[in-house]
């Protein structure tokens, strides 16, 4: 029974041949299913329960790829995409794609269209402004409190994360920027020690990165300006310049509303 389950769950694995059929504009992660995950094992050795983990791994990687495609504008607001068609792009079956898209529907990035697939949600400036306002209500007080209590050495450790946002912005890597942007903010908030706050803030942050209107792409200049605020904020935190920290933090979120 376990071997049958392993064969079924190993079907959505990637292969070099499948990846070759995907358009060059779509990022296809290189995922290889271990031999045991295909239902094969050496005689005398117990079959490890890896297939369940492998299925979740594939679904998770598809979810990451779809999120990157949303940020990059490869999945266009208002367009309907079917799980089988997206599965063909990524070289997998429709099952992990459908599961990933259902998660995106819960997050509000797509809408379920019965018997057709999933429509990428259209979002307006007002929704984005509301998300920025809620994020500011959560993050600004926390950052200002941390500015008064966290020693400079702890802030110095976050320098690579701030620099990663600058590097992604410099080359116009919108998906890479979105990931590094959330990583930086998450690391800052994690210093408060409140895991629930970090999770709520991360969810709001991710939602603010979904496509906006009919032009989902963010100009490189805006990415560079946003990234520069990260490094400037970190410099002020290290210098313990509370006045500059307060100004930068509020400006960072006010700019997100425009």
What this model shows, in words?
It is a single chain. With 258 residues, this protein is mainly alpha-helical. The chain has twelve helices and three strands. It has a three-stranded antiparallel β-sheet with strand order 1-3-2. A hairpin with a 3-residue loop joins strand 2 and strand 3. Helix 1 runs parallel beside helix 3. Mean pLDDT is 78; it is low at 1-54.
Low-confidence stretches: 1-54
Give the overall silhouette. elongated
From N to C, what is the helix and strand string? HHHEHHEEHHHHHHH
Rounded Rg: 21 Å
**Portion of residues within helices:** 55-70%
- Number of strand elements: 3
What proportion of the residues form beta strands (DSSP E)?
Answer: under 5%
Structural class: mainly alpha
Key features of this structure:
mainly alpha; disordered N terminus; 258 residues; 3 strands; three-stranded antiparallel sheet
Give the helix/strand layout.
Layout: H1 2-9, H2 16-20, H3 50-72, E1 80-81, H4 83-90, H5 94-107, E2 110-113, E3 117-120, H6 125-149, H7 152-156, H8 159-170, H9 174-190, H10 195-208, H11 220-239, H12 242-257
Antiparallel strand pairs: 1-3, 2-3
Short description:
The chain has 258 residues and is mainly α. The chain has helices spanning 2-9, 16-20, 50-72, 83-90, 94-107, 125-149, 152-156, 159-170, 174-190, 195-208, 220-239, 242-257; strands at 80-81, 110-113, 117-120.
């Amino acid at each position: 029974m376990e071997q049958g389950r392993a064969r079924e769950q190993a079907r959505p694995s990637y292969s070099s041949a499948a990846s070759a059929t995907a358009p060059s504009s779509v990022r296809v992660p290189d995922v290889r299913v271990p031999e045991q995950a295909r239902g094969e094992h050496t005689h005398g050795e117990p079959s490890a329960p890896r297939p369940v983990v492998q299925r979740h791994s594939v679904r998770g990687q598809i979810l990451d790829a779809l999120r990157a495609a949303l940020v990059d504008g490869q999945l266009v607001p208002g367009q309907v995409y079917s799980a089988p068609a997206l599965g063909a792009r990524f070289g997998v079956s429709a099952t992990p794609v459908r599961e990933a898209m259902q998660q995106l529907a819960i997050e509000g990035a797509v809408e379920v269209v019965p018997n057709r697939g999933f429509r990428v949600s259209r979002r307006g400036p007002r929704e984005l402004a509301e998300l920025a306002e809620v994020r500011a209500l959560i993050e600004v007080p926390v950052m200002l409190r941390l500015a008064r209590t966290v020693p400079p050495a702890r802030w110095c450790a976050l320098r690579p994360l701030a620099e990663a946002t600058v590097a992604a912005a410099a080359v116009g890597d919108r998906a890479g920027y979105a990931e590094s942007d959330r990583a930086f903010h998450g690391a800052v908030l994690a210093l408060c020690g409140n895991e629930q706050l970090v999770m709520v803030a991360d969810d709001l942050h991710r939602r603010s990165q979904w496509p906006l209107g009919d032009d989902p792409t963010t100009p490189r200049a805006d990415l560079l300006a946003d990234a520069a605020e990260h490094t400037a904020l970190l410099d002020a935190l290290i210098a313990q310049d509370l006045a500059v920290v307060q100004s930068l933090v509020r400006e960072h979120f006010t700019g997100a509303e425009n």
